[in-house]
Amino acid sequence: MIKCKEIMTPKQNEVSSEDLAAINGYSKTPLTAEEVFTFDILLCDNEIDRDYERFTVDALHVLQGMFLGKTGIFDHTWSAYGQKARIFKTQVVEEPARKTAAGESYTYLKASAYMLNNEDNASLIDEIRGGIKKEVSVGCSVASITCSICGEPEGSHECSHLRGAEYGGELCCRVLDEPVDAYEWSFVAVPAQRDAGVIKRFGGHVGDETLKRLEKEAQLGRSYLKALRDETAKLAIMASPEMPEDTVRSVLGKLDENELATLKGVFEKRLEKLYPPVCQLTYQREPVKTEDENYYKI
Q1: pTM of the model
Q2: Using an 8 Å Cβ cutoff, are 1 and 184 in contact?
Q3: Contact present, 13 and 54 (Cβ < 8 Å)
Q4: From CA 21, how far away is CA 41, in angstroms rounded?
Q5: Residue 294 scores a pLDDT above 70
Q6: Is residue 57 within a helix (H) or strand (E), and if so which, with residue range?
Q7: Residue 184: what are its φ and ψ, rounded to 5°?
Q8: How far, in Å, CA of 115 to CA of 26, rounded?
Q9: Which of 31, 9, 35 is nearest to 22 (CA)?
């Protein structure tokens, strides 16, 4: 689940007939313009965020449809008691004059939301109007997360690039594409910070320190696998010099750790037969004095 930086701006409470018709598409009973309060939200964009992640423009267009009708809650707490607003209109907006860190035209997903203009929501409406409740973030899932440097999927053994690092002057980030679902959007205090930026809902929330540890362990694993693959490739080429190196590395690139370790053992045994160890020591058969330092010669 990904959370992105949001900017919210309240409208004047002037609801057009078109907007009111869209709002009433979600209400059980028809609402009048006086009964609703509307405001605009910048849901997410294609800029690199604090987690060194960014959506593709194509992803924003897919999310445009997915976020229609999605409810607004607080701090991504999935409870019906926190439901306060609902999105009734979305639009992808491009600003060609503004460029992102990746060199693209800045593009964002804009949404219009409504809430009931009643006594229960009066304080929240005042906070929105006063700029207190300003930031929000979204909860969604994507099928594709790739490295911006090499294009490999996140977690791939072929990728050793770290998000937030620069390679050849290019900032490394994770590119989010192929949205699968949009869950909700939330009022938050600090959007897209490291701990509150990416929510891993695989049985619980993963904190910042845990993510750092897992990333470090993953990097060590990738380094080990690369060293194992390089060593196996060297042994394979020594055992079968006629095989092109590119072919060897291409084949080994598809193997996992256990397969590489097994193959490495096979090549080591083959090389032992091809190049048996030879004793490098010679010695004199006739008796010599123990103090003779030339008894063993290398």
Answers
A1: 0.57
A2: no
A3: no
A4: 19
A5: no
A6: helix 57-66
A7: -170, 175
A8: 11
A9: 31
